[in-house]
Specification:
Elements: H1 2-77
Amino acid sequence: MAELKEVQKQVEDNTKTLDTIKQDLHTLRHNHLWHIERDMESLRKTVEKMDTRMWAVLILLVTSVFAGMFGDKIFNLL
């Protein structure tokens, strides 16, 4: 009889623990993950802007190097 009461108490404790875990998972899924997804989207947009700026700077750099190398020759031809 005492063993049955121990098993029932353990089942009740496990049920409470599972309910707590379910509630925590629900909170994580519906609150924290949403914030993480929003932050990741913001970071993605920031990286895209930085990527565009990097390409612009690279194009300007290459253009200025070629202009320095061939600028005088082009002006002499004109």
